[in-house]
């Protein structure tokens, strides 16, 4: 990787500002905020342990929710400090400010290997505005900046980009944490020269969200499989009826351009040949039927790929050596429409067991794999949503660009 990582740094005695992704889901119980899922906290432990064992004084900065520059008590990071202390097995100081005298004093008190978590950076509107003065205050006296928050790296905020510029300008190093390093390795380096056949599976709701990903991957993939509601915009573009399916009629032009680019480059571009369709009746879906015709009848919606498409997609996936998957094949939240998504999930795991490298590009495909109990049977699952998509578009992320080159 072209950027410094925490393995390249001598941390002993240094003050290290570390951006982490602690945007964890919480619910209120008897006036207390309870963390429902600590996956994101657990994911930072390898990076933190490495820095602790190397004698760093660690100042953690993170955001939680969207307080929009206000001090919203339910979005305080205080419960995260307690949770982290339990998981890592050492005290974690918490400061209810992220800048100013109190934050500076708390950082100054840190001993080698100590941990301090600062309050939610988004309590200040200057964070999202990447305000230089705010970034300077957040950077404080830090000697080094490390970033393990891949999920926030697509945003040029003070805590992801601004602080790095300030610390670098005074000669400090800015490095990727281990979690960030893995994201860059799998979503970046591994897909630069993938072992072939390289099969890309894209699904989800909208063509508009993923067209730049399709465009970029058309330059790398051997086969692209399209499922989800996205497939219906392609169907509409090809002149077929889509009934009441979720489509973007103003995006048929870009769908046709993608089909043409695939033909020009010799990329196999597979759309579903059949679908499950359903109707909304008094606010409830009717049981699905298989529709093998190109046209979807009036009043019906395509809700999943059909059995013929499942078989074809799974056959292609079984022959892949590198797989990238982002987005479900249907409305998998309803178990009647989840067969396509779960069959693809099983096929991806099967190919992985036979030696393929499988990379899951974040969001709902990660959710589907976890729901199917298959999360540990793929090579890599990204922790990013928007950040993964931006990265797969071939864009450099501001939070990555800000790190020191090797
Ligand atoms: P995305 O975030 O773009 O990956 O989209 C995920 C969402 O797409 C999920 O909530 C799915 O329910 C939805 N989705 C997938 N297929 C369809 C479909 N055929 N019709 C409507 N929504 C769909």
Describe this structure in words.
- With 406 residues, this protein is α/β, with parallel strands linked by helices.
- The protein has two domains: 6-182, Rossmann fold, CATH 3.40.50; 193-392, 3-Layer(aba) Sandwich (Rossmann fold), CATH 3.40.50.1260.
- It is built from 15 helices and 19 strands.
- The protein has helices at 39-53, 78-88, 100-108, 125-128, 132-139, 158-169, 178-192, 207-217, 230-237, 252-265, 307-318, 339-353, 364-371, 386-392, 398-401, and strands at residues 15-19, 26-29, 32-35, 57-61, 93-95, 115-118, 144-147, 174-176, 198-202, 223-226, 268-270, 275-278, 280-281, 284-285, 289-291, 301-305, 322-326, 357-360, 380-381.
- The strands form five sheets. Strands 5-6-4-1-7-8 form a six-stranded parallel β-sheet, sandwiched between helices. A six-stranded parallel β-sheet has the order 11-10-9-17-18-19, with helices on both faces.
- It is elongated and about 70 Å long.
- It starts with 14 loop residues before the first strand and ends in a 5-residue tail after the last helix.
- 50% of the residues are buried.
- Residues 203-206, 209, 228-229, 246, 302-303, 327-328, 330-331, 333, 363-364 line the site of adenosine monophosphate.
- One of its GO terms (biological process) is glycolytic process.
- Belongs to the phosphoglycerate kinase family.
- Keywords: ATP-binding, Kinase, Nucleotide-binding, Transferase.
């Amino acid at each position: 990787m072209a950027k410094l990582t925490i393995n390249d740094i001598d941390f002993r005695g240094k003050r290290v500002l570390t951006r982490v992704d602690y945007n964890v889901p919480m619910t209120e119980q008897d006036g207390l905020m309870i963390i429902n899922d600590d996956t994101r906290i657990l994911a930072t432990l390898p990076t933190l342990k490495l820095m602790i064992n190397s004698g760093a004084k660690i100042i953690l900065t993170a955001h939680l929710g969207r307080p929009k520059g206000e001090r919203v008590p339910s979005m305080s990071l205080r419960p995260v400090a307690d949770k982290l202390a339990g998981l890592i097995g050492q005290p974690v100081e918490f400061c209810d400010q992220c800048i100013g005298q109190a934050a500076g004093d708390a950082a100054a008190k840190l001993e080698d290997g100590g941990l301090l978590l600062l309050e939610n950076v988004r309590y200040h509107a200057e964070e999202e505005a990447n305000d230089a003065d705010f970034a300077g205050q957040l950077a404080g006296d830090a000697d080094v900046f490390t970033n393990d928050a891949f999920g926030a790296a697509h945003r040029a905020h003070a805590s992801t980009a601004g602080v790095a510029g300030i610390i670098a300008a005074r000669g400090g190093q800015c490095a990727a944490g281990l979690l960030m390093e893995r994201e860059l390795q799998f979503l970046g380096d591994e897909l630069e020269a993938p072992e072939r056949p390289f099969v890309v599976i894209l699904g989800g709701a909208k063509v508009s969200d993923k067209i730049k990903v399709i465009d970029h991957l058309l330059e790398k993939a051997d086969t692209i499989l399209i499922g989800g509601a996205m497939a219906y915009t392609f169907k509409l573009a090809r002149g077929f009826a889509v009934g009441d399916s979720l489509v973007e009629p103003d995006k048929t032009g870009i769908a046709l351009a993608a089909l043409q680019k695939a033909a020009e480059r010799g990329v196999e571009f597979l759309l579903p040949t059949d679908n499950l369709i359903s109707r909304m009746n008094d606010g409830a879906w009717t049981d699905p039927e298989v529709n093998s015709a190109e046209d979807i009848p009036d009043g019906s919606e395509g809700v999943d790929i059909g059995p013929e498409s499942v078989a074809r997609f799974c056959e292609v996936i079984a022959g892949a050596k590198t797989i990238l998957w982002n987005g479900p094949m249907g409305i998998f939240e309803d178990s009647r429409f989840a067969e396509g998504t779960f069959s693809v999930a099983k096929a991806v795991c099967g190919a992985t067991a036979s030696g393929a490298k499988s990379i899951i590009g974040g969001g709902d495909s990660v959710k589907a794999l976890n729901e199917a109990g298959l999360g540990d049977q793929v090579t890599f699952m990204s922790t990013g949503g928007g950040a993964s998509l931006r990265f797969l578009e071939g864009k450099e992320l501001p939070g990555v660009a800000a790190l020191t080159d090797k």
